[in-house]
Write a structure and sequence with these properties.
The chain is of the alpha+beta class. A hairpin with a 7-residue loop joins strand 4 and strand 5. The radius of gyration is 19 Å and the shape is elongated. The chain has three helices and 16 strands.
């Protein structure tokens, strides 16, 4: 298993503290510091994932539990309506996110905001977040509907920073790293209304592995 590079500024101070405690003959506290370092490191774990299914299948961008599925308008993603799959990340979930579909990044921008609990209904509107819009490879924009998919990384009470690795104009492949939410919290996947959603409320998702949606046949 690998770990996201963002882990080390959080983990290494506890390791240094543990070394100092052992040097000063405080083994009990040293062990505690090492356990804390390990616990923090696990927040940033990045297990290997893979999916061998059809190229048009949209994969879950995040680990966690589906807490809501609805249909909304979001002009920042594109025209028309979108199915929104809301995934809540607990403290025990993988906090790395992955690209859900092949395409090209149209935009990726930070929206400053608050840090209320991610399970609140209004968290997606009021919290700090990053919305990444990907134009689907081979999309047709038929009937005026968007051929884009949106991934919104949302901060929460514990999540102090949202990170996205992607930039506008960048080609991306399904399963590549998209970003990370440090210590939490919520990720919304938005797909065009014509798509079939393959998950249900209460399902547990795995990034880069769980089929979440696909174009309707």
């Amino acid at each position: 298993m690998t770990f996201a590079r963002e882990a080390w500024p959080f983990v290494l101070p506890f390791v240094a503290l543990a070394v100092g405690l052992f040097v000063y003959r405080q083994p009990t506290w040293g062990v505690i510091a090492l356990l804390v370092a390990l616990g923090v490191l696990l927040f940033f774990r990045d297990p290997r994932r893979g999916f061998e299914g059809p190229a048009e299948v949209v994969l879950a961008p995040a680990d966690g539990v589906v807490t809501r599925i609805d249909t909304i308008e979001d002009p920042a993603v594109g025209p028309g309506r979108f199915h929104r799959v809301v995934t809540f990340l607990s403290a025990f979930d993988v906090h790395v996110q992955r690209v859900p579909i092949d395409g090209e990044v149209l935009s990726s921008g930070l929206k400053p905001g608050r840090k209320v609990a991610a399970f609140r209904d209004d968290a997606g509107e009021v919290n700090e977040s990053i919305l990444t819009v990907i134009k689907v490879l081979g999309g047709t924009n038929a009937g005026g509907e968007s051929d884009c998919i949106g991934i919104r990384q949302i901060a929460g009470l514990m999540a102090r920073r949202v990170v996205c690795y992607l930039e506008a104009g960048q080609p991306v492949r399904r399963g590549e790293h998209l970003g990370i939410i440090k210590f939490g919290s919520r990720v919304d996947l938005l797909v065009p209304e014509s798509y079939e959603v393959l998950v249900e409320k209460g399902d547990r998702l795995r990034n880069g592995e769980t089929p979440a949606a696909r174009p309707s046949s």
